[in-house]
Write a structure and sequence with these properties.
By secondary structure, the chain is α+β, with helices and mostly antiparallel strands. It has helices at 13-36, 43-59, 66-85, 89-115, 118-125, 128-134, 159-168, 178-183, 270-291, and strands spanning 146-155, 188-192, 201-206, 209-219, 222-230, 238-249, 255-265. The protein folds into 2 domains: 13-134, no CATH class; 146-291, Alpha-D-Glucose-1,6-Bisphosphate, Chain A, domain 4 (2-Layer Sandwich).
Amino acid sequence: MTTPEEPPPPVAWAKRLPALLIVGSTAVLAPLLLAKAGRLDTAALFVGAPLAIAVVIALAPPAKSLHGLTFRVVTFALMITSAFLHEGAACVLMASPLVYGVAHFVAEIVRQSRIRQAGRRYQTALAIFPLLIAGLEGTAYRVDPVQQVSTERVVAMSLGEVRDQLAEGPDFSTERPFLLRLTGYPTPTSATGSRLEVGSRWTFSLAGDPISTEVTAQDPRQIVFKVVADQSKTQRWLHWQGATIDLTPRPDGTTAVKLTVSFTRRLDPSWYFGPIESAMVSAGLAHFADSFGLREGATGDD
């Protein structure tokens, strides 16, 4: 008759938590700060950041539990991956909570299987199967990869004034939303184009790379664009499809302006990256509306 293994001694989490927080914060903040400073192609990323993280890991108390070991290995792996992905490091930073969560979930399953009786170990291992099925998303199947994001403003302008404002093009010198500044998420910096007739093209420069769009339909109350070429770095995360601008005159002389963009999400799982990409694109769309002077309550003289 087999007897269950003795459970490991309780982990002194209170003593190790500060060290774990320092390691995790260093691993996340180092690439993020380098991205914000535009230093992802320098030795600061390939040598400086790994050096800082390695020193913190080496000086931290030795791991005495499976979770402690898992935390160190995952942190080191994320650091190495960030160094090799350059601009894709933002994806790694966004994914890090998910990666830590999955790793520690599996570590806990392994720990539980070690302290349970032999007959119950297999029951514990079964908990991994839902995780395996979820891990197939993006390869075996996809869940709602096409997403839409909208923002709506009511401006103190007539329908004609709004169309004139749009035809003048955007001014991207306006301050970006806090979320975009915090994450360093790229947004357009310049635009070329001057007309809103069908067939007209607008090209937006994003981190030095162009995104070309074409007006495919338009009437006094709606303008429809499609993306005809995209060489931007955001292709790592999503494929832009198109945009629609809806204009609705109101009885009080103001105009409701609704901007909608559609894109295909490239990152999975959907339940994790879907909300993240929607939040980023929503912040970018708000900045786009601001760049046309379409702030809430704005007038044609603003």
